[in-house]
Amino acid sequence: MSRDLINLIVEATWQSLYMVSLSALLGTFLGAPLGIFLATSRKGELFAAPFANLILGTIVNATRSTPFIILVVAIIPFTRLVAGTSIGSSAAIVPLTVAATPFIARLVEAAIREIDGGLVETAASFGATPLQIVIKVLIPEALPGLVLALTLAVVSLLGYSAMVGAVGGGGLGDLGIRYGYQRFMPEMMLAVVVVLIALVQAVQTLGDHLARRLNRRLRHR
Amino acid sequence: MNAHQAVTQGEPVVVDRAGKPKLPGTDVMVRFAGVTKTYPHRRGKPGVEALCDVDLEIGRGAITGIIGRSGAGKSSLVRLINGLEKPSGGRVVVDGREISRLTGADLRLAQRSIGMIFQHFNLLSSRTAAQNIALPLEIAGWSRTDIARRVGQLLALVDIADKRDRYPSELSGGQKQRVGIARALATRPDVLLSDEATSALDPQTTRSILDLLSTINRELGVTIVLITHEMSVVRQLARDVVVIDAGRIVERGEVADIFTAPKHPTTQAFLGEVLGEAVPLSLANRLQPAPVAGGQAVLRVAVRGAVAADTVVARLSRALDADVALLAARIDEIGGRHVGSLIVGVPAARAEQALAQLAQSRIEGEHLGYVA
């Protein structure tokens, strides 16, 4: 494989990492609080707001059920508003974040719901405020699950990022389509797939390791 | 409707001995006045009346057992005391504060003076023993140095100082409950609520936890409310007992009084659990309704406190001028008094005479049948 092609792969890898890491970060920033709210706002819970829960849950579902490639195109005006342009890696971060936020919210919600309600009641019986319960009980107890959720989100974003080539976002998926498929370069396709596999493997291993270190629940001597 | 009306209307029998004078120097820590708790029906499930018109006083500095079957309303009772739930009617007063009316910051402040321990310990898996104990102090806004000092004291108090940096998954059930107790006592509460705290523990560990609770009550003067379905726990630890059944208090008083002369069927059933079946199965199978020639009449003689169990057989034998066979006996000590029953055999023809003799001595006797 020529030096130029290798440079292309390296560049595309950086673009993918840039898009995925930044959208994962922004998605977590927005999705985690949303997920915590979804997990604690049903009737009779910490921040009981059943109506808001219903509305946000519906919006989350709507976003989650829109195919990503359609989402990318559909929100181009919004992307242009936020990023100033609708083309390129930076612009691609907008639809990636929009897709990642509800996904992460649902994952966080599931992780928080796993926590035994008895612990919440215990903290409440000490006179803890709802916010204290979230910060001192729910988040620390759910941390291993949250790390695994985030790992899953990053892996999914790597997959999504392959589609932003459609709006000139670049990245590995785009490289694979343009060179590997459209220019009939199977070696390029293979190289892209190998790099993606390595990335996913690395992310998953790191996430699993971290979650295991954080999990005190099953640790025995 | 108050308790008085309930009785006059011929509703469930309430055997209330609260009328007798309280021990000197005690006053009321927890008071329920006409408390009713109903849960509205939800998704097809009908509404539940968990507590119905409960009047209750729990003495300051005492250990009070609240005993009942599952579903009797025990959990509702304890959740009303620490303000996790509001009554549907009536008032709950803890240490002079009407906790059933407090909300927000006032309620949270009041909750700090009420500690609670749980059947399943409810420790945070992500925190070490010491960090778990520190949780209520962090919530109460203590400084880091104050927390460190207090946690050290508490670890020593519950005798697990060597486990301070262990996570709950590394602790035994008994050790976890010790952490739970230390955590509950962290903010120096006046009341400690124990919700089936020993139900998940083996008998030996239960014993050590009950001993610890007893020490805490004696040395710190903390009022302890024991919620349990286990008679043995009440017997070992409590001075007063409240028996609840189907959301109503059916009997209450000092442990020794209640269990030496239980009146309500539920209380009698609980007592039966401790004492076990009075009549051995092999004997029960041989019992016949009619006298057998040369056989014996089988009587049950109740042993309740005042009766000196050791002399009852000898006295009966003397009165009948005949041998009295001791077929089975089960006697336990509750609150320093003997409780149980003797199964004795007397010559078949003398059964009536024996019962009359027992009645004359104010001893409860029952004719069970005859054996060959």
Could you walk me through the main structural features you see in this protein, from its secondary elements to its overall organization?
The complex is a heterodimer of chains A (221) and B (372). With 221 residues, chain A is mostly helical. Chain A is built from 9 helices and no strands. Chain A has helices at 3-40, 50-65, 68-74, 76-83, 89-113, 117-125, 130-161, 172-182, 186-214. The longest helix of chain A has 38 residues, at 3-40. Chain B has 372 residues and is an alpha/beta fold. Helices cover 35% and strands 28% of the residues of chain B. Chain B has a 7-stranded mixed sheet with strand order 1-11-10-4-9-8-7, sandwiched between helices. Chain B has a 4-stranded antiparallel sheet with strand order 3-2-5-6, with helices on one face. Chain B starts with a helix and ends with a strand.
Q: How do the helices and strands line up, and which of them pair or pack?
A:
The complex is a heterodimer of chains A (221) and B (372).
Chain A: H1 3-40, H2 50-65, H3 68-74, H4 76-83, H5 89-113, H6 117-125, H7 130-161, H8 172-182, H9 186-214
Helix pairs in contact in A: 1-5, 1-7, 1-8, 2-5, 4-5, 5-7, 6-7, 7-9, 8-9
Chain B: H1 3-8, E1 15-16, E2 28-39, E3 48-59, E4 63-67, H2 74-81, E5 89-94, E6 97-98, H3 104-111, E7 114-118, H4 129-139, H5 144-157, H6 173-185, E8 191-195, H7 203-220, E9 223-228, H8 231-237, E10 240-245, E11 248-254, H9 255-260, H10 265-275, H11 281-286, E12 296-304, H12 309-320, E13 325-334, E14 337-347, H13 351-360, E15 365-371
Parallel strand pairs in B: 1-11, 4-9, 4-10, 7-8, 8-9
Antiparallel strand pairs in B: 2-3, 2-5, 5-6, 10-11, 12-14, 12-15, 13-14
In short, what is this structure?
The complex is a heterodimer of chains A (221) and B (372). Chain A is an all-alpha fold and 221 residues long. In chain A, 79% of the residues lie in helices and 0% in strands.
